[in-house]
Specification:
By secondary structure, this protein is an alpha+beta fold. 36% of the residues lie in helices and 36% in strands. The longest helix has 21 residues. It comes from Candidatus Aramenus sulfurataquae.
C-alpha cells in the first residue's frame, strides 16, 4: 500500500471516530433500542366486545392507547367487514360486520367454536390476530 492510500485511510478512520464522538451516535442508538424494547410494555390491548341481537352483530372496539387504530377487516365464516373503521385514541367505536347467514353464524357462536380473524393497523404496523368467540 503506498503512502497516500495509508494516510487517506488513517484520515478517514479519524474523521469517523470524531463524528461518532460529536454526534453521540451511541446514545442515539441506545435510545432507539430502549424505545423499541419498551414499546411492548407501553401498548395496551384494544378490547373487542361482541354483542348479538336477533339478526345483527355489533362489535364494540375500545382503544385505550394514545394512537389511532384502523380495523381493516374482520372475517370469519358467514361474516365480513364491508369497510375499514378508524378508532381514535381513548375512544370506543361500534362496528357492524355483515353476516351472510345469521342462523349458521348463531349455531357456530353458540357452540363456542367460531373463529374470527381481525386485521388492524397502528403505529405503521399491520397486525392480524385470531379470536374464538
Amino acid at each position: 500500500m503506498d503512502l497516500g492510500k495509508g494516510l487517506g485511510l488513517l484520515a478517514f478512520v479519524a474523521i469517523v471516530i470524531i463524528n461518532f464522538y460529536f454526534l453521540n451516535v451511541s446514545q442515539i442508538f441506545n435510545q432507539g433500542v430502549y424505545q423499541i424494547t419498551n414499546l411492548r410494555n407501553s401498548l395496551k390491548n384494544p378490547e373487542f366486545n361482541f354483542h348479538f341481537s336477533e339478526n345483527d352483530v355489533t362489535v364494540c372496539v375500545k382503544n385505550p392507547n394514545n394512537f389511532t387504530i384502523t380495523v381493516y377487516n374482520m372475517t370469519g365464516n358467514y361474516m365480513y367487514l364491508p369497510k375499514s373503521v378508524v378508532v381514535y385514541p381513548h375512544t370506543e367505536e361500534n362496528i357492524s360486520p355483515v353476516v351472510t347467514d345469521y342462523q349458521a353464524f348463531a349455531n357456530e357462536v353458540s357452540s363456542g367454536d367460531y373463529n374470527v380473524s381481525i386485521e388492524m393497523s397502528f403505529l405503521g404496523l399491520n397486525v392480524t390476530f385470531h379470536e374464538v368467540i
